Amino acid sequence: MERRPLGTTGLSVSALGLGGAAFGQQYGAVSDAEITDCVRTAIDAGVNLIDTAAYYGRGASEEFLGRALEGGWREKVFVCTKACRLDRAVFDFTPEGTRKCVEGSLKRLRTECVDVLLAHDIEFATDYEYVFNETYRTLHDLKKEGKARFIGMSCYPLGLLKQAAERCALDVVISYAHGHLADTTLVTKFLPAAAAHGVGVINASPLAMGLLTNQGPQPWFPGPPELIATCQRAAELCRSRGTDIAFLGMQFAFGLKQVPCTLTGAARRSELEVNLKAMSTPIDESLLAEVLEVLAPVRDLTWKSGNWTG
């Protein structure tokens, strides 16, 4: 599998990374055996970065991943986890809360050090100056203490993520739902700033939180109705051509060569294999052009997330 440099970390990461949200049983029950099979199949296929978080399943994702990586598998992969978000509406960006969260993550992951540690969804903080100072300082201290090799932050609003990259000496950031068929602002608006500060970028949610799927997003999806409706028209076009918009969407995301790593949320081998196939199958340029034309009216349309108003 193609490897790409992750900013100035010195890590060479697989173009496809494994996202662990579904390990936390948030999208339906998945067994220990299924998760272990998916994780180890991914590693055997060349995936060397797995992302999880204390928030996913209130620690369940980390527990499942910790078990799956036993027996020498931990040494074959870079593990990224995220702290400070504990539940859908529960956040703790304080030094004490961050430390407590990280200690729990290390225990669940059965490791003494994670490769990447991020403050999770910082747009939900009520004081960004506090995050850029106190939370960042705690991450930096944890790095010095050997609890994490590299540190960073994640959030949806690119304006806030750009401020984080400029204000803090971050190694890595995760951006979600900005590097996909309907929105490439991750590349056009954020990557130049990331490169200027040596920050490695991971692209999460390349199917835009379910927008680019046949079933569409969950009822709680925060985006505007016109975005949902337009993406469904694009999905119908793909079906009429005998393909799945999710497959085309993964192909498109992998084609963003400037992005070091794109995460897939697979939790079963069958789901993983679809994404591995998308990596190796040439994209249908004619269909892609038609889909992009359908999506043109909602190109780069975003939504409010957290407390950010920039």
Q: Would you write up a description of this structure?
A:
GO terms for molecular function: L-galactose dehydrogenase activity. By secondary structure, the chain is of the alpha/beta class. The protein has a single domain (3-210, 247-284), classed as TIM Barrel, CATH 3.20.20. It is built from ten helices and twelve strands. It has helices spanning 32-44, 60-68, 95-109, 128-144, 158-167, 185-196, 225-240, 245-254, 269-280, 285-295, and strands at 3-5, 12-14, 16-19, 49-51, 78-83, 85-87, 90-91, 114-119, 148-155, 172-176, 200-204, 261-264. The chain has an eight-stranded parallel β-barrel with strand order 3-4-5-8-9-10-11-12, surrounded by five helices. Strands 1-2 form a two-stranded antiparallel ribbon. Helix 7 packs antiparallel against helix 10 (285-295). The longest helix is centred in the middle third of the chain and has 17 residues, at 128-144. It is globular.
